[in-house]
Design a protein that fits this description.
The complex is a heterodimer of chains A (about 475) and B (about 140). With about 475 residues, chain A is mainly alpha-helical. Chain A has one domain: Sodium/glucose cotransporter (Up-down Bundle). Helix content of chain A is about 80%, strand content about 0%. In chain A, helix 3 crosses helix 14, helix 18 runs parallel beside helix 20 and helix 19 runs antiparallel to helix 20. Chain A is globular and about 60 Å long. In chain B, about 30% of the residues lie in helices and about 35% in strands. Chain B has a five-stranded mixed β-sheet, with no helix packed on it. In chain B, strands 1-3-6 form a three-stranded antiparallel β-sheet, with no helix packed on it. Classes of the chains: A mainly alpha (about 475), B alpha+beta (about 140). Chains A and B meet through helix 4, helix 5, helix 10, helix 18 and helix 20 of A and strand 5, strand 6 and helix 2 of B.
Chain lengths: ~475, ~140
């Protein structure tokens, strides 16, 4: 059984230095185009299909895909691989919504802005609180993933690796705003796709499916059981969690606002198709661990350990590069989107309504740095496994699916229904989280929220005017 | 004489014996409803070896230098885990006291209920989006 790092700390520092220079250099280069607030926050609303689909795909290939998908497989077996892959539907389902968002709010900036204009202040407060909490858990899970990956592959202590990746992403996001985020995402998506294909080919060549099956049947038999209770519950839970993440998060809304008219729908559908095979490859890495006799101390470390073991030093470098790219592509997106949400909704919409675009541009930069600093503080103690950190926010995001869908398409959905749906869904989902488990919490939250929104719309219909959304360009 | 004994042992003439205090599990009674168990123990130095036993059959589930082990895919039942540490002189500590693991997966009626709830919610969401897109054209 193997738990030692494959690469040396010197390799680790060298690779980190190389990519730090690359990403920060590109951030500074692209930052020349984002001097204005419009450029910094929505990339001048001029993103085409290639960049649009690449940034959506790269952002969705987070540390969660490359490190959590193997954990899903290791804990929930074959059903777990399927459950994780279902998250692709989040992008497919958001594709038509992206077109609708762009059409309804051609001058929009954030998802919070939509909720405030569509549902009013109370719903907006609930939405922003849930969304920021989720954003922070996602950011923390990725910062942790970066530190864990670097430690597992190179032996560089967790604290140093985690700090390095957060600092690099913060630097180029500050330098270049959403333009830099989308530009680096394009390069990172190419690295991820090429790397995943190579890892998949080498892994399948190194260990046969029969060996994997035999080891699982002997050592971890439930992973092959068709009636594995937790895994069955996780299927729709993960799907609904994915829908909630994409539907509500400003990460995806900011890209919808940034894309040219007519691009969003195609870009998100294409991104979903490109993303689909990646968790399957990641899941396979998790399932082969028992066959290779790899000792797993933490389930979220299984992917880098297996890949490094299977593919040797060169493979470890490849995995390092792929996962580093996937983590960076998500951290930068989340920093930029959270900054937009705080700057536009909280600062401009509430604290400083008379701020000039230049002042807001500076505020956005400060928010990026502040958000990264908070995430760093929360990452330091290595709270729990990645899954536990992230899925605690599952009920919150799943409770926002129906308020967003109904808000975008149903003018009769009343504001209080959205608020009640988010609150009751979150509370119900968290109850299930603590009594049953994370693998059922999002399902309960989404179901409760859907029931509240549908019943309220039918019983107490309102009459919202879509033109009201077009009028609110900025808060 | 003690010096002679050490020399004989280190030269490999005598079998290595357990010499140090064994690690101690942080939690010695663990319940799991999904077949997943995270074992953690307190100890100063590794590497470690963890064994899992059920119905008298033992197997090694972890060898490594981190004082925690992740085990998954367990069926319903009771298991006993034990851990020992390897010292600088390459000897093993005694085995720790056992950690009792009781795995009882969720009842299937609950599973079918939540699976069905998830399916209905997902289908309703898909239908709502498809119907709205068809109606609004964008």
């Amino acid at each position: 059984m193997i738990t030692a790092a494959i690469l040396t700390p010197e390799h680790g520092w060298g690779l980190m230095a190389l990519f730090s220079v690359l990403w920060i250099g590109l951030g500074l280069f692209w930052g020349r185009r984002s001097k204005s607030l419009e450029g910094h926050m929505v990339a001048n609303r001029n993103v085409g299909l290639a960049l649009g689909s690449a940034t959506a795909m790269a952002t969705w290939v987070t540390s969660n895909t490359t490190m959590l998908a193997p954990q899903f497989a290791l804990e929930l077996g074959v059903w777990g691989v399927l459950a994780y892959s279902m998250a692709a539907l989040g992008l497919f389902f958001f594709a038509p919504l992206a077109g609708r968002i762009r059409a309804l709010m051609p001058a929009g900036y954030t998802s919070g802005q939509f909720v405030r204009l569509r549902y009013g202040h109370t719903a907006w407060v609930v939405f922003v609180a849930l969304s920021l909490f989720y954003g922070l858990t996602w950011l923390v899970s990725m910062g942790m993933a970066g530190g864990l990956l670097i430690e597992a592959l190179t032996g560089v202590p967790y604290l140093y690796g985690m700090s390095a990746i957060l600092c690099v992403c913060t630097a180029y996001t500050v330098a270049g705003g959403l333009v830099a985020v989308i530009g680096t995402d394009f390069i990172q998506s190419v690295i991820i796709l090429v790397g995943v294909v190579v890892v998949a080919v080498l892994a399948i060549d190194a260990v046969s499916v029969e060996q994997v099956h035999a080891a699982l049947a002997e050592e971890r038999p439930m992973l092959l059981d068709v009636l594995f209770p937790a895994a069955l519950m996780a299927i729709f839970n993960n799907l609904l969690f994915g829908l909630g993440e994409v539907f509500h998060s400003n990460v995806w809304w900011s890209r919808a606002f940034a894309m040219r008219p007519g691009v969003g729908t195609k870009a998100y559908a294409l991104a979903g198709a490109m993303w689909l095979p990646i968790p399957i490859v990641g899941g396979f890495l998790g399932l082969v661990a028992p066959a290779l006799g790899i000792g797993v101390s933490r389930p979220d470390m299984v992917a880098p350990l297996v890949a490094g073991h299977l593919l040797g030093q060169l493979g470890a470098v490849l995995v390092f590069v792929v996962v580093f790219a996937s983590i960076a592509s998500s951290i930068d997106s989340l920093l930029a989107a959270t900054s937009d949400l705080v700057t536009n909704d909280l600062v401009h919409g509430w604290l400083r309504p008379n701020a000039t675009p230049d002042q807001l541009r500076k505020t956005a930069t400060q928010v990026v740095v502040g958000t990264a600093a908070i995430a760093w503080v929360l990452c330091v103690p290595r709270i729990d496994t990645l899954a536990t950190v992230l899925f605690f926010a599952g009920p919150m995001v799943a409770s926002m699916i129906w308020p967003i869908v109904a808000g975008l398409y149903w003018k009769r959905t009343p504001a209080w229904a959205a608020t009640a749906g988010m609150i009751l869904g979150t509370v119900g989902g968290l109850c299930v989280y603590f009594t049953v488990g994370w693998y059922a919490a999002s399902t309960a939250a989404a179901a409760i929220s859907a029931a509240v929104v549908i019943v309220a719309t039918l019983q107490r219909p309102a009459d919202f005017r879509w033109e009201h959304l077009k009028g609110g360009a900025r808060a | 004489m003690p010096g002679l004994l050490v020399a004989v042992v280190s030269a490999g003439f005598l079998p290595l014996t357990a010499t140090a205090a064994p690690p101690t599990f942080v939690d010695s009674a663990i319940q799991s409803s999904n077949g997943v168990v995270q074992l953690e123990w307190s100890a100063s130095e590794g590497p470690y070896e963890v064994e899992l036993a059920q119905d008298g059959v033992r197997r090694t589930v972890y060898r490594g230098s981190v004082p925690s082990a992740h085990v998954s895919g367990l069926r319903d039942g009771e298991y006993h885990a034990r851990v020992r540490a390897r010292r600088d002189d390459r000897s093993w500590s005694n085995w720790s006291g056992p950690a009792l693991i009781r795995v009882e997966h969720h009842a299937m009626p609950l599973v079918w209920t939540l699976l069905g709830t998830g399916a209905v919610t997902f289908i309703a969401t898909g239908f709502a989006v498809a119907w709205a897109v068809r109606r609004h054209r964008v």
